[in-house]
Design a protein that fits this description.
With 550 residues, this protein is α/β, with parallel strands linked by helices. Helices cover 59% and strands 7% of the residues. The chain contains 19 helices and nine strands. The longest helix is centred in the C-terminal third of the chain and has 73 residues. The two termini are 29 Å apart.
Length: 550
């Protein structure tokens, strides 16, 4: 027999740790959902369910399953342990078609046997200080039987046993069914694995040792760490004491069930861990900026900015232009009102502002052009590719699908609301007020000069004697007032137009930054956040899986 020593990091787990690991695996499978292959998810469910069920049952009993090939001698070994012919034995054909159990000790194992669903039960009379006290030994049907019900019964019990004792013989020790279908899939539970080479007395001692070494090699190929092989003979009794000592040691330690559960959970966790990557992708600024720029185009922000700039010039000249031509500008359509854009400045909290964004009516901005829509699709696709980089195929597909689906889910309406809710108005600059006052002064000069001439003309018409019009040198003051008012008003209006153009461009840049922030928030909510949620799920699955691995 090969040693049963255990490394420090492989210390015996406790039931609480097993339950916690099962919960972590179950949570990981739930978070991963359909991004985890069905077979892996099923493996996790089985391991977690078995851990919950077995830890709720007797911890004083150890379930040892004798499983093996036809004619290997399982029933003979079972009888040798029991000390009587409890199990029927056969030479030419398998006899065992139902699992039967033998229970050692005074502790009742009814609930455990009910869970195992083994109706054929034999109780071994308790013996003081019996090293096998607490053993539940099961004799399983042959797993290579042609009778499908026999194989199904063996498979069912093996899913619930605490310790596997694989029984074979010199003729069938390399049997593919045993290695490929039974030993290898349970290799993670190597601490719960013992292989018995029965009928070893039928070959020469040197041949038996050669077969033993070859069997050890096959077990290592199956993935069994530190495989244990016992050479026995149910006829001569050779090796049975050694096998009984191994079983007694396991039964006495009372941790075979926990070791088996840990092995199953680790195997399931390993399979789950292989479905995720070691690191998570990060959506960098390049993908975010490309998305924002594409959404700005789709939202018609250039048209908004043109309207903002035109509105600034119109309003500026409406206050600073020549007073005699201002009325003409009021005949022009308001560029922001034509697009049904918000001039106001929402007051209150961010929550109130979000509520306004939800209630505000749609704008009259033009629908995005095919080129703008194509740019958005390309930017969203790049976000999906950046978020899928380095992920396994299922997770990568989930990220890409999420990006494309979220981009179609109300994105246009969200952009429209964001643009409509953004305050585009501007406070009246002080210079507008000052310039407006000056323009009224210049206008008053013109009106005053004209009025002066009008009074003089009226007095002349009524044949009143009038004094000469006051003059500056040879130029009448009324004429100076009219000319000065016109020239100053027109020149000042031209200067104001130039300054308003500069202000309009500055306002355009300022509004563009605000609209970029608003559109970026839409992109974050509708595209980036859903993608990052999938990436976060991926990270959470890896975190939970590693927690289950301990």
């Amino acid at each position: 027999m090969h040693g049963m020593g255990r490394r420090a990091e492989d210390a015996v787990p406790d039931a609480a740790g097993i339950i916690a690991a099962a919960a972590s695996l179950r949570d990981a499978a739930a978070v991963g959902a359909d991004r985890i292959p069905d077979d892996v998810r099923r493996q996790v469910e089985i391991a977690a369910d078995r851990a919950d069920e077995r830890t709720s049952l007797s911890a004083l009993h150890t379930v040892v399953a004798l499983a093996g090939v036809t004619g290997g001698g399982k029933s003979s070994i079972f009888n040798a342990f029991v000390g009587g012919d409890v199990a029927e034995t056969g030479v030419r054909r398998p006899i065992t078609s139902q699992t039967q159990a033998a229970v050692w000790g005074s502790e009742l194992a009814g609930d455990l046997l009910d869970w195992l669903d083994v109706p054929r039960r034999h109780r071994v009379d308790p013996v003081p200080d019996d090293p096998l006290s607490g053993l539940v030994l099961l004799d399983l049907p042959d797993f290579d039987s042609r009778v499908t019900t026999n194989r199904a019964e063996a498979d069912r019990i093996l899913e619930r046993a605490d310790l596997f004792v694989w029984v074979t013989d010199p003729q069938k020790y390399a049997d593919a069914v045993m290695h490929d279908d039974y030993v290898a899939p349970r290799a993670a539970a190597s601490e719960s694995t013992v292989v018995v080479l029965n009928h070893s007395d039928t070959v020469a001692p040197d041949d038996a040792r050669t077969i033993e070494q070859d069997l050890l090699r096959l077990l290592r190929d199956d993935g069994v760490a530190n495989p244990r092989v016992v050479l026995t003979s149910a006829i001569t009794g050779a090796g049975l004491d050694e096998l009984r000592a191994i079983v007694a040691e396991v039964v006495g330690a009372r941790h075979a069930a926990l070791l088996r559960l840990r092995g199953d959970l680790r195997q399931a966790a390993g399979a789950l861990e292989r479905t995720v990557a070691d690191v998570d992708p990060v959506l960098g600024p390049d993908a975010r900026n490309r998305l924002t720029e594409a959404l700005l185009g789709a939202a018609g922000v250039d048209a908004v900015l043109d309207a903002v700039e035109a509105d600034h010039r119109r309003r500026a000249l409406g206050r600073t232009g020549w007073v005699f031509t201002r009325w003409f500008r009021h005949l022009r359509a308001d560029p922001l009102r034509r697009l049904r854009l918000n001039r106001g400045r929402p007051e209150g909290t961010d929550e109130a502002r979000r509520e306004l964004e939800m209630l505000v009516a749609r704008t009259s901005l033009p629908e995005p052009t095919p080129a703008a829509r194509a740019a958005v699709d390309l930017a969203v696709r790049r976000v999906g590719e950046a978020g899928a980089e380095g992920l396994p195929s299922r997770w990568a597909d989930a990220v890409r699908d999420t990006a494309m689906a979220s981009a179609d889910d109300g994105l246009r309406d969200a952009l429209d609301r964001a643009v409509a809710a953004e305050p585009l108005g501007v406070r009246v600059p002080i210079w507008w007020r000052a310039a407006g006052v000056l323009q009224w002064v210049f206008g008053a000069l013109v009106v005053g000069g004209i009025a002066w001439y009008a009074v003089l003309a009226l007095l002349d018409l009524l044949r009143f004697d009038t004094a000469d019009v006051a003059r500056f040198d040879a130029v009448p003051y009324p004429f100076i007032m009219i000319v000065a008012g016109v020239i100053l008003g027109v020149v000042f209006a031209s200067v104001a137009r130039a300054v308003a153009g500069v202000g309009g461009r500055r306002r355009r840049r300022r509004i563009r930054r605000r609209l970029s922030d608003a559109v970026a928030r839409v992109g974050q909510a509708h595209v980036i956040a859903p993608v990052e949620a999938v990436i976060a799920d991926h990270a959470r699955v890896r975190e939970l899986t590693r927690a289950a691995l301990g």
